Amino acid sequence: SGVGRNWGWASAGSSILAEFGTLHMEFVHLSYLTGDPVYYNKVMHIRKLLQKMDRPNGLYPNYLNPRTGRWGQHHTSVGGLGDSFYEYLLKAWLMSDKMDTEARKMYDDAIEAIEKHLIRKSNGGLTFIGEWKNGHLERKMGHLTCFAGGMFALGADGSRDDKAGHYLQLGAEIAHTCHESYDRTTLKLGPEAFKFDGGVEAVAVRQNEKYYILRPEVIETYWYMWRFTHDPKYRQWGWEATQ
């Protein structure tokens, strides 16, 4: 039809952070390959807009209305709807040979807000990343969010205030939590989402969260943690899931 439109379910026709916020790495590279700056200019316009906008508690909501330029529903997730935005800020910095300091600053600022408002430790000592919804923390972590362990490890080098060790440890803690979500199931395959509430830890509660569809995020984090630490347990955990 030639008419652009957003998903009907996406908070009053909003665009999704993980989609519009992830274009910059590919489009910047496309301008590099073609010599045409049009792709670079388009995505840098998005980045500049995001930098200027007020963010509740420093967090990026998952929805942005393209007509009003305002955030939609105040829902922040490091998993579905938000995930690759954070990952690609970091990778844009790496792809630029660490020259894209703007992307690195946006990543660092976002991670600091995520640590402050979304990352918690359960009564049983498991570190998890919850979701922020309308001013409240939902103590639920999605399988998609498990990629963040590897992202924290990847971003440890170059982190602020010499916090490389801190972020490598945080990556290890997320990897451990996600492994527990696998290990606590009958089939040893992790659920789509798992809770940390009411005495329940790293376990799916709702029936519509008790399924596994070959998502790669947990194995991805194992791979990154193996590459950075060479701890054999990550290979063992990966092989357990493969079996």
TrEMBL record:
One matching Pfam family is: Glyco_hydro_47
Task: State which pathway it belongs to.
Answer: Protein modification; protein glycosylation
Q: Which GO terms describe its biological process?
A: carbohydrate metabolic process
Keyword Disulfide bond set for record: yes
Cofactor dependency:
Ca(2+)
GO MF terms listed in the record are: calcium ion binding; mannosyl-oligosaccharide 1,2-alpha-mannosidase activity
Listed SUPFAM superfamilies? Seven-hairpin glycosidases
Write down the top EC class of this protein.
hydrolase
Which cysteines in this chain are paired by disulphide bridges?
Answer: 146-178
> Which is one Gene Ontology cellular component term of this protein?
extracellular exosome
- Mind listing the UniProt keywords for this protein, alphabetically? Disulfide bond, Glycosidase, Hydrolase
Q: What is its EC number?
A: 3.2.1.-
For this protein, the record's PANTHER family field holds:
MANNOSYL-OLIGOSACCHARIDE 1,2-ALPHA-MANNOSIDASE IB, MANNOSYL-OLIGOSACCHARIDE ALPHA-1,2-MANNOSIDASE-RELATED
| Protein family (similarity comment) | Belongs to the glycosyl hydrolase 47 family.
The protein's name: alpha-1,2-Mannosidase
Q: Which organism is it from?
A: Atlantisia rogersi (Inaccessible Island rail)
